[in-house]
Design goal:
10 helices, flat, mainly alpha, 2 strands, two-stranded antiparallel sheet
């Protein structure tokens, strides 16, 4: 189970500074949350898809995201019209009725959730994890929190791999994890849990020793980086345009 969504390509979206894409994702989420009509949400969702397609994101990644969000999307579209009524009545049975306005609003709400997800994936699909952390640190996130975030992203797939390895090893020794009731199954996982905890404690001890030998606890006024990130002219122009769009949306909301 991998947590690195990054697709290694050399496109216009990949070349942007991670801070630009972080700001873009935040502004997109703000704009989508501020919209209520179906058409603007569809336009923004289509624009996000077009941007990701132009960044050479494989089609199977789009399918994976839609498959992941499909249950929530269908649930919202189905349930929303039962509780929100506006427009022409389409179906009526008993105390329940479905109206055209409720159906449109439910579709808009479902696509809003999808747009929020794809706004985040603009950042995740086109930015390396290390670059995301560097961008957050450059934007003011404390270095210690940034390193903790990077280590978490690095070791999540490792621990899932360890769990799978321990389960396979225990099954090879005759451990049955699939028979019996829920309580018996939970008890069957005890050997797996113990082995994973021991491995996790050993890994954390080795990691803490490695950080200590690299003087992580030493206070320094300014840290240096082997691979640093710097704003280019295109990054500055893009940031101004993104912030300008956010300001324009705020103005239209309060005007």
């Amino acid at each position: 189970m991998g947590f690195d969504f990054y697709i290694r390509e050399d496109t216009w979206l990949h070349r942007f500074d991670p801070r630009v894409k972080i700001i873009l994702a935040v502004v997109l989420m703000f704009v989508v949350l501020s919209l209520k009509s179906l058409l603007p949400i569809v336009i923004i969702l289509s624009a996000i898809h077009a941007a990701l397609f132009s960044a050479k994101i494989p089609l199977n990644r789009f399918q994976w995201v839609w498959k992941m969000m499909l249950p929530v999307t269908i649930m919202i579209i189905v349930l929303w019209p039962f509780f929100y009524h506006s427009g022409k009545e389409l179906i009526h049975f008993g105390i329940l009725s479905i109206t055209s306005g409720g159906l449109i609003e439910g579709t808009a709400m479902a696509l809003r959730i999808c747009s929020l997800g794809f706004a985040c994936f603009i950042l995740l699909f086109t930015t390396d994890q290390n670059q995301i952390v560097r961008g957050l640190v450059k934007m003011g996130l404390p270095y210690t929190i940034g390193l903790t975030f990077a280590i978490t992203l690095r070791y999540l797939p490792t621990f899932f791999g360890i769990i799978g390895m321990v389960i396979d090893a225990q099954k090879a020794r005759g451990l049955d994890l699939n028979t019996g009731g829920p309580v018996k199954r939970m008890r069957s996982y005890m050997p797996v849990l113990v082995a994973v905890l021991i491995t996790g404690l050993k890994t954390s001890e080795n990691l803490s020793n490695a950080l200590e030998t690299r003087a992580f606890s030493v206070s320094v006024k300014k840290r240096t980086y082997f691979n640093d990130i710097r704003f280019r002219a295109a990054d500055g122009i893009a940031t101004v345009c993104i912030i300008g769009a956010a300001v324009l949306r705020i103005y239209t909301m309060v005007a």
